[in-house]
Amino acid sequence: MQHEAHAEHTGHVHHEEVHAHHAAPAAGWAVAAQATLHCLTGCAIGEVLGMVVGTALGWGNLPTTVLAIVLAFFFGYSLTLRGVLRAGVDFRTAFRVALAADTLSIAVMELIDNGVILVWPSAMDATLGDALFWISLAVSLVIAFVVTTPVNKWTIGRGKGHAVVHRYHH
Known about the structure:
By secondary structure, the chain is mainly alpha-helical. It has helices spanning 2-10, 15-23, 29-56, 61-86, 91-119, 131-157, 163-166.
């Protein structure tokens, strides 16, 4: 605190601070929301597909939820991987970037999304033809977006998470 107050008061900014601000994109709410929306897209595709497949096959709640989570990570990583590969990066590097950019975001999103479904009365027993299935899934994804956006804002502000992907955007 004292160091920051000194820099503010004197107008001097240390060399490390200048580079830290240029290394990461601005951690504003719009950037965080955009990163979360990107993550939500992949998660929603996987989540919906997993729930639909598991429910259609008559699987129980646990295997259906596990499938949905696995597919959410798969599609979340895949969307980031696709964008980074387009920038001309080799697969191994692109895969590492996707892991670094999305793991925390997807994990938080899946924890919240599935947690909401778990505590929503009768949502775990709803079938594809029930409005409750689709309403609870949609509401859980919205809540997950709201909770995950500050997480992404925090990680981007530290040059982590989706900030890693920004290095590959042209």
